[in-house]
């Protein structure tokens, strides 16, 4: 039986200086820093989570902060573009805000929709798309109010090193529906309300190089542990190597690399980001999994301090 993907759970990228990261995504884009923790596979490195007020699935953009990492190159085998939903009628606010902070942008038309296209300080390619989909957030910061704030993901553009096999995965294994095509892109959709658009670029963008300014992986959501195990079996039946289930505290994960070299994660929707912090305190303290608590003192000394702050115009 063909399984159906619900859509994006989160997207994880690699960036550099963590304070620059916080200043841009919280201070300028207005997302909430919902969790300050470490990369569970590399605890000397931050893993920062930004999203709506509690990091609901489909809203969380997360980052590994490589202070001494090399600059990557966006290309084949990666998520090339990450697009966010903003409320209808908010484009004038976002254009003015980007101009206010000296962020260059362009307007792109994709399948009849206007996209504001720009880059973050470390090179990630981002877009904003107006849509009625999703709920307005319950979070305000630095002049970004719920009436204009990012609601979550619109979707992504995949740059594949084997476009035909990536398309086969999306249609025949992950159950996405092909809805549109133009000269450069094939668009697929999932059953979710937000984070439900997956575009595949038809032409090669050149070989990508994972490093600062690139997406590390895209995570697809499943409801619970049982559904995740069903997906694990389902994907393995098509010849993909799927990792064992890995505990991420706020969700559980499995990973596989598809034939176009893009790394996919399948993540559970629970237990969520409120299991270890009160709502009003989310993102303020360094939160560690139980198995790293013995390293807390050393990590708090070596990880650079970061602070969510309102950003002044230069």
TrEMBL record:
List residues of the VOC domain.
Answer: 7-131, 152-269
Q: Which superkingdom does the taxonomy of this entry point to?
A: Bacteria
User: Sorted alphabetically, which PROSITE patterns does this protein's record hold?
Assistant: VOC (PS51819)
- Matching SUPFAM superfamilies, A to Z? Glyoxalase/Bleomycin resistance protein/Dihydroxybiphenyl dioxygenase
CDD domains assigned: PcpA_C_like (cd08347), PcpA_N_like (cd08346)
Tell me the protein's name. Glyoxalase family protein
Q: Which organism is it from?
A: Alkaliphilus peptidifermentans DSM 18978
């Amino acid at each position: 039986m063909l399984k159906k993907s619900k859509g994006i759970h989160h997207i994880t990228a690699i960036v550099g200086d963590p304070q620059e990261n916080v200043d841009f995504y919280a201070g300028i884009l207005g997302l909430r820093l919902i969790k300050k923790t470490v990369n569970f596979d590399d605890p000397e490195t931050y893993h920062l989570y930004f999203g709506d007020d509690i990091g609901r699935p489909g809203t969380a953009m997360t980052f590994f902060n490589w202070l001494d990492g090399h600059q990557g190159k966006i290309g084949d085998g990666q998520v090339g573009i990450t697009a966010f939903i903003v409320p209808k009628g908010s484009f004038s606010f976002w254009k003015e805000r980007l101009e206010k902070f000296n962020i260059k942008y362009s307007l792109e038309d994709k399948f009849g929709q206007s996209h504001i296209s720009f880059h973050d300080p470390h090179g990630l390619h981002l877009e904003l798309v107006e849509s009625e989909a999703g709920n307005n957030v319950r979070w305000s910061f630095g002049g970004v109010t719920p009436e204009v704030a990012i609601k979550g993901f619109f979707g992504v553009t995949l740059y594949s090193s084997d476009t035909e096999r990536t398309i086969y995965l999306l249609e025949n294994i992950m159950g996405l529906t092909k809805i549109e095509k133009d000269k450069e892109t094939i668009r697929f959709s999932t059953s979710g309300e937000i984070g439900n658009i997956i575009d595949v670029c038809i032409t090669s963008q050149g070989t990508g190089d994972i490093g600062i300014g690139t997406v590390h992986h895209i995570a697809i959501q499943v409801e619970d542990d049982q559904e995740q195990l069903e997906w694990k079996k389902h994907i393995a039946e098509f010849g993909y190597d799927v990792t064992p289930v890995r505990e991420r505290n706020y969700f559980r994960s499995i990973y596989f690399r598809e034939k176009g070299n893009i790394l996919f994660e399948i993540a559970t929707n629970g237990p969520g980001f409120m299991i270890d912090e009160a709502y009003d305190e989310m993102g303020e303290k360094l939160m560690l999994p139980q198995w790293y608590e013995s390293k807390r003192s050393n990590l708090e000394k070596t990880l650079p301090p970061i602070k969510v702050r309102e950003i002044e115009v230069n």
